[in-house]
Structure to design on (93 residues):
């Protein structure tokens, strides 16, 4: 099981960050809010990567695909927790 990040995931994170930038520009959000959203994207990406590296020890793995990249990128750490909860619920059911 390789833990390398595919180029599609990197593109999805990049598109998510670009989407955040465009959304902020179109809605004329203050610069501080845009920086907060970008920070959430970086924190979400880092948390998802760390979860997959260290979560393998306890059989916890969130697949890296465009949907999980967008959720983690837009919502940040709460998005990663949402993905973990959803993954847990789907394993239990």
């Amino acid at each position: 099981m390789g833990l390398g990040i595919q180029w599609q995931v990197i593109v999805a994170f990049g598109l998510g960050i670009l989407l955040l930038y465009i959304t902020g520009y179109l809605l004329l959000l203050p610069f501080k809010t845009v920086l907060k959203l970008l920070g959430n994207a970086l924190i979400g990406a880092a948390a998802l990567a760390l979860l997959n590296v260290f979560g393998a020890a306890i059989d916890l793995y969130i697949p890296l695909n465009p949907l999980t990249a967008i959720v983690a990128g837009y919502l940040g750490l709460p998005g990663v927790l949402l993905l973990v909860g959803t993954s847990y619920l789907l394993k239990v059911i």
